[in-house]
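ok, trying the design again with the full structure, not the truncated one.
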């Protein structure tokens, strides 16, 4: 019998098993005329590498997986400290659990679980697939630190709508979020364009009128940038003949856009055999006996689908909690 391990904790001694790396997957940029920054995300072959590990999931769910990977990549690579950004969605729809996370170094992983209660055709929107539940971002800076978590209800038709609502309600942080994922002849494609309006850095203005004028101009630039961002389509984003810098300049060139150094993304999972064994110690002898087939208990990591086998005799009673 094979069980799926979905524990998302970050033990002190876990180390990611990193696979494919896409060197220039994240292209950061900013606008000179307003406190606005953005990231253009192109997962390239990384989308196929990660999503193909979940071939039992329907394409509609893998599409959301691709969008989620691009979303957390955009947010995690903007962190100014070491840590992991996790997106967790739990609902009463066909997708009962949806998890995506990314480290500040760009190491990505994804998993989703389907509810056994739902049968028949799947809904065609993210809201329909998730149902009612919650949307949560968690920042984990590692051992001996306190996690920061923000939670909102699932509001909006698309995953981008839900994320935008989260940052508006939970963080009071205006964002313009555009997510893309689709299957193609070359495999899965996924990417994103995210704009953030940053808090003001302060003004040298010596009177309220000048300050108000600066704020109005910044608001106008922000609204214009959001309008331009909304014109991006999947064919442009996934066009291999268009570099990220070229695409950003096409979209925002009239707004004095500046590109920063690009950053990599990779597949990275933190599972290991000792961690899996520790998980099994939570079960009683009777439960472990039921799990074993021919004296072997098999577990699959829900993120990377790696299989771990354990000899039942190597899990003595005194090693686990009743």
């Amino acid at each position: 019998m094979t069980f799926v391990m979905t524990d998302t904790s970050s033990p002190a001694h876990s180390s990611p098993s990193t696979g494919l790396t896409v060197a220039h997957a994240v292209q950061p940029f900013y606008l000179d005329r307003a406190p606005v920054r953005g990231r253009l995300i192109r997962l390239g072959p990384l989308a196929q590498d990660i999503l193909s590990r979940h071939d039992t999931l329907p394409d509609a769910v893998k599409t959301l997986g691709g969008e989620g990977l691009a979303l957390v990549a955009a947010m995690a690579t903007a962190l100014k400290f070491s840590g992991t950004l996790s997106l967790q969605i739990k609902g009463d729809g066909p997708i009962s659990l949806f998890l995506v996370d990314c480290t500040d170094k760009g190491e990505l992983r994804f998993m989703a679980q389907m509810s056994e209660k739902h049968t028949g055709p799947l809904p065609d929107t993210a809201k329909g697939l998730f149902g009612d539940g919650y949307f949560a971002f968690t920042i984990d800076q590692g051992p001996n630190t306190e996690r920061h978590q923000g939670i909102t209800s699932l509001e909006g038709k698309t995953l981008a709508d839900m994320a935008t609502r989260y940052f508006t309600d939970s963080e009071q942080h205006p964002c313009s979020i555009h997510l893309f994922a689709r299957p193609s002849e070359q495999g899965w494609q996924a990417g994103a364009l995210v704009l953030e309006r940053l808090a003001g850095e302060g003004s040298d203005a010596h009177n309220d009128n000048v300050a108000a004028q600066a704020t109005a101009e910044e608001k106008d630039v922000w609204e214009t940038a959001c309008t331009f961002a909304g014109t991006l389509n999947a064919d442009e984003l996934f066009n291999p003949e268009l570099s990220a810098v070229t695409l950003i300049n096409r979209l925002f060139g009239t707004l004095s856009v500046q590109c920063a150094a690009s950053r990599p993304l990779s597949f990275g999972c933190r599972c290991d055999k000792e961690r899996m064994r520790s998980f099994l110690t939570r079960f009683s002898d009777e439960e472990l006996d039921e799990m074993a087939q021919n004296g072997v208990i098999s577990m699959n990591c829900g993120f990377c689908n790696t299989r771990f086998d354990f000899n039942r005799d190597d899990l003595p009673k005194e090693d686990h909690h009743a």
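Keeping the full-length input from now on. The domain at 2-11+21-269 is CATH 3.55.30.10 (Hsp33 domain).
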